[in-house]
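note to self — DONT lose this again. spent like an hour looking for the file last time. sequence + predicted structure for the chain T wanted, 192 res
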Amino acid sequence: MAKDADSREKTLSAAVKLFSQRGYHGTVLQDILDAGGAPRGSLYFHFPKGKEQIGEAAVQLGTDGVRQFITDAAQTSGNVQAFLVKLARGMAASLERSGYREGCPVATTALETAAQSDVLGRAARTAFQTWEQEIKRALISFGMTANQADRTATAVLSQLEGALLLARTYRSLEPMQRAEKALLVLGREALK
């Protein structure tokens, strides 16, 4: 049983990485099999509905990873400013480590499929809503009102997602550095 779970996890990890790099439509099942090292039979055993089911599970795995990153950043920050800096720098570091090949684990798939697949569109919406709520929860813990945190969380997520796209496109961390500065202003203004 552990071998089956390991095979599933390797397949999903490969799918998250490939979808992030190439997009959903630019990734074929054989790419996922090759990257994950799983036999073809295990793919259909774990994902009998095919690529869309893999996509949904990969988006969920990416969602969970980013949610945990946000939670960890909040728990290890003493204030709003430190939290926002950790978010921006952590995402920038991840992008740089990938050689600007992997930004958000959900954005590329969301952009390609949200209007075409109810399953993947719902998974992407859930991802962004989950992250927004986690950011909001952190902002409230640092003293923002629910209304302030609600507006600010949307702005923070939008700023980070946009900066990741620009940084990946430009192959430069400069947009992430600018976003960090904008987030600090946003955080100060929201607390007024």
